Amino acid sequence: MKSKSSFRLYGTLAVILALLVGSTVRAQEVVRNITHIAGDVYRFQNNAHYSVFMVTSEGVIATDPISVEAATWLNEEIRQRFNQSVKYVIYSHDHWDHASGAAAFPEATIIAHANAIPYIEASDQPIELPDITFTSEFDLRLGGKHVHLYYLGVSHSDNLVYMVFPEEKILFGVDAIAVNRLPFQDFEGTDIDGLIGAMYALQQMDIDIVAPGHGELGTIEDIVAHRTYIESLKDQVTALIRMGRTDAEIMETIKMPQYSGWGSYNDWQQMNVRGMITYVKEHYRF
């Protein structure tokens, strides 16, 4: 088992390397921005990935660091813009493209779902082990502000955390939610029934703004629309399998053109169908 200190050392070396290759990163025209969402909550963009952070009088609560380079940039921007340091980092889940790079926040306490630990320990990416874990819900308070963390069961992963900033009525939901965009590719590793159930639970929350880990901001109505798409796809695939249709016939039949205006429709629509066929056949008897 890797020790916490070994992760800290590896992470620190990674941060140093990121600084040394900064000119190379800039040459690749990386897109990084900070935008205000509401109240004291801001959104950080690193190319196609997004995280959020909240500024308080006692420091900053950050979420997914995304990468060593991204977190190094964000840490400096927070110091310059807000004269604060990052006190907490919350992982949405263990996947390396969201959880890497927390060593760039040397003062931060890291929080994650308990199920994330074995994946982080097995990873060859610069992902710091969490200092605090939880299994169901966790309320993090700092400087008179707070963020509530929810685990709603297995969905996109078995350790996906949804984060709600109650004063601003913002939900940060990574990889399980998309706004006006199809689900990612073929649902690899996703418990689709668990994902649908999680979205039903999210719909009941007192939220005005939905901030996905990829793409544009939305509202509760966008969660409903995303869930409706997935349920409709699942129902159509299931019905055609019961009719004895082949995989090729199912893919040819299910096009769902009413969603052609959503992002990635041309690239992922057939991948969505293929992934749903695999899921339904693996989880249901016919």
Could you name the key traits of this structure?
single chain, 286 residues, Metallo-beta-lactamase, Chain A, 12 strands, 22% strand
Share of residues in helices: 25-40%
Please give the order of strands in the largest beta sheet: 1-2-3-4-5-6-7
- Largest beta-sheet details: 7 strands, mixed
- Uncertain spans: 18-27
- CATH class of the largest domain equals Alpha Beta
Beta-strand segment tally: 12
The computed structural class is: alpha/beta
> How much strand content do the residues show?
15-25%
Domain tally = 2
Fourth-level CATH superfamily of the largest domain: Ribonuclease Z/Hydroxyacylglutathione hydrolase-like
Q: N- to C-terminal separation?
A: 43 Å
Kindly identify the CATH topology of the largest domain: Metallo-beta-lactamase, Chain A
Overall, the morphology is elongated
Number of continuous helical runs = 9
Average pLDDT for all residues: 93
**CATH architectural arrangement of the largest domain:** 4-Layer Sandwich
Radius of gyration: 20 Å
Q: Secondary-structure element sequence?
A: HHEEEEHEHEHEEEEEHEHHH
Sequence-ordered SSE layout with sheet pairings:
Layout: H1 4-20, H2 22-27, E1 32-38, E2 41-46, E3 49-56, E4 59-62, H3 68-82, E5 86-90, H4 96-99, E6 109-113, H5 117-122, E7 132-134, E8 137-142, E9 145-151, E10 161-165, E11 170-173, H6 192-203, E12 209-212, H7 220-242, H8 247-253, H9 265-283
Parallel strand pairs: 4-5, 5-6, 6-7, 11-12
Antiparallel strand pairs: 1-2, 2-3, 3-4, 8-9, 9-10, 10-11
Helix pairs in contact: 6-7, 7-9
